[in-house]
């Protein structure tokens, strides 16, 4: 499978740039390491554009203690960690996310249209991401 990385701008309701969402296809360690290296070299607190945070998704099978070691190389202001809500049902994965949260990383939790448990997401999330076309009634309420 061919790898790709795409940067998608995420804007606030007033059109102000909020973050850059890194979307990548390949889940191997080299791709993830490369993404982290790019975030590290891009971040400069003096540069207004370069200091826009990057949303970095940690895919389910990559959530482990090795990932924490890599992510802790990143400045807490330069990255927002995105995870899928489904992993909150796996205690070992929750411990990893808790360590990141305790290290002051912002956590973005992606909700799926069929998610029924919202409580854990509210506990961990600094931000919640969902497709507004598929908002479940229990979340909309």
Which tags fit this structure?
141 residues; alpha/beta; six-stranded mixed beta sheet; 5 helices
H/E topology pattern? EEHEHEHEHEH
Beta strand %: 15-25%
Number of helices: 5
Largest sheet descriptor: 6 strands, mixed
In whole angstroms, the N-to-C terminal distance is 41 Å
What coarse outline follows from CA principal-axis ratios?
globular
How does the helix and strand content classify structurally? alpha/beta
Strand order of the largest sheet: 1-2-3-4-5-6
Give a description of the structure.
By secondary structure, the protein is of the alpha/beta class. The chain contains five helices and six strands.
Task: Summarize the topology.
Layout: E1 5-11, E2 17-24, H1 29-42, E3 54-57, H2 65-71, E4 79-84, H3 91-102, E5 106-110, H4 119-124, E6 127-129, H5 137-140
Parallel strand pairs: 2-3, 3-4, 4-5, 5-6
Antiparallel strand pairs: 1-2
Could you give a short description of this structure?
The protein has five helices and six strands; from the N terminus they run ββαβαβαβαβα. With 141 residues, it is an alpha/beta fold. A hairpin with a 5-residue loop joins β1 and β2 (17-24).
């Amino acid at each position: 499978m061919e790898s790709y990385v795409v940067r998608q701008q995420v804007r606030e309701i007033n059109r102000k740039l909020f973050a850059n969402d890194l979307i990548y296809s390949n889940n191997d360690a080299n791709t993830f390491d490369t993404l982290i290296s790019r975030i590290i070299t891009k971040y400069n607190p003096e540069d207004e554009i370069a200091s826009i945070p990057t949303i970095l998704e940690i895919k389910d099978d990559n959530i482990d203690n090795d990932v924490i070691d890599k992510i802790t190389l990143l400045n807490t202001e330069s990255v927002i960690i995105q995870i899928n809500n489904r992993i909150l049902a796996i205690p070992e994965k929750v411990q990893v996310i808790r360590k990141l949260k305790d290290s002051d990383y912002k956590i973005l939790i992606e909700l799926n249209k069929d998610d029924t448990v919202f409580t854990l997401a509210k506990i961990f999330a600094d931000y919640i991401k969902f497709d507004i076309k598929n908002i479940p009634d229990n979340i909309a309420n």
